[in-house]
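Dig into this one:

. . .
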Amino acid sequence: MRIRMENPLFEFINTTVNFIALNFLFLITCIPVITIGPAVAALYQVLLREARGENGYLCSTYLKHFKEMFLQGIAVFIFYIAALFISTFTAVFWGSMGGTLSIVITVLLVLVSVVIISSMLYVFPLMARLDNSIKQTVKNAFIIALSNPVLTVVLLLLHITVISLLCFVPYMKIFMLISGFAFFAFCFAFIYTKLFRKYEAVAEN
């Protein structure tokens, strides 16, 4: 009896093993912390292609794009961390002052922090999908975040849900270590693919 390798069971096992290996590579490349930027960008580079049906070798492709986007990814990551630190620190400072003016400024700074976090949801997928300068990529991320408020809120809630599950559900930590990061990024990749098609269509016209 011949075993057909195109059997759905074997395809499922092969895909599962590849996702586990990809998740492992992602975690390893995130260990220095400062490399989280290029790691996330490379992860989306691979999984956006998978979402579009452009199947390929996940791990080797991931390592290739991780190297290609290393410096740009680090620069973008540092920019966002610095921006969040400044806005958060300033909000805490004004919040401790007391008075109506400090409350107004604190609320505005909190909103700024939310906008920064919102644009972070798009910046690394954008790096993965489009070849632009750092400045243009960050600018596009802010524009997309603000021009798609409903989707941005949905993505924020989804990420918050995943983080909450990771914090409060013990088995979630095991799942994330095994394949969770790759799995959720793959799910989000379908959302980003649909969104980016809209902008790509506009750019072509």
The radius of gyration is 19 Å. The chain has a mean pLDDT of 90. DSSP finds eight helices and no strands in the chain. The helical segments are 8-30, 36-51, 58-68, 70-95, 100-129, 134-147, 149-168, 170-204.
